[in-house]
Amino acid sequence: MTAIEQTEAARPRGTRLPRRARRNQLLGAAQEVFVAQGYHAAAMDDIAERAGVSKPVLYQHFPGKLDLYLALLDQHCESLLQSVRKALASTTDNKLRVAATMDAYFAYVEDEGGAFRLVFESDLTNEAAVRERVDRVTLQCAEAICEVIAEDTGLPRDEAMLLAVGLGGYSQVVARYWLASSSTVPREKAVQLITSLAWRGIAGFPLHGAEGH
């Protein structure tokens, strides 16, 4: 059950929940409000009302709005990182691996909760703690991709990292455009198209110690 689904299930005011369940419920409500309104326009009153709890209950779990936003950001940055790692580990066929990684970004932005907006389109990027988390997950995703590229091609790490940053950045920018433009191209076809483009580039670096790839 997602955080938002937990919010819906626990919406009635006054319901007593275990601490972890209550925290997840509050995070789900906060996600709905932050995605819809942005950080600056959102108020703790809105989040408490959305969760069906009193403000004191909300403050028992999160001392302030920034604490709540950072907890939510941590959750969704970790979700993105795990999705990318899972995609990379899903196959040893590199073309399929590229496709799986591209699809991980598309799936992330397509999630109905809109959590990707907190990571990639936050209106709070001037806040150091937010910027640090966004930069860190971008770097971690690139490092995961870099490990595969460096191992398979034998390229120096710095060169492999440049390629990895390019692939990761390309994936999330195209995925966000695809979603924002309400493209008529189905997700599967969109992934196929951008995979074809990316593969033509990365395939130019032959497997280390192999004549072909």
From TrEMBL:
Molecular function via GO: DNA-binding transcription factor activity; transcription cis-regulatory region binding
Where does the source fall among the domains of life? Bacteria
Q: Does the entry feature the keyword Transcription regulation, yes or no? A: yes
| Protein keywords | DNA-binding, Transcription, Transcription regulation
DNA-binding region(s), residue ranges: 43-62
Checking SUPFAM superfamilies in the record gives: Homeodomain-like (SSF46689), Tetracyclin repressor-like, C-terminal domain (SSF48498)
- A Gene Ontology BP annotation from the UniProt entry: negative regulation of DNA-templated transcription
Q: Enumerate the spans annotated as HTH tetR-type domain.
A: 20-80
Q: Know the name of this protein?
A: TetR family transcriptional regulator
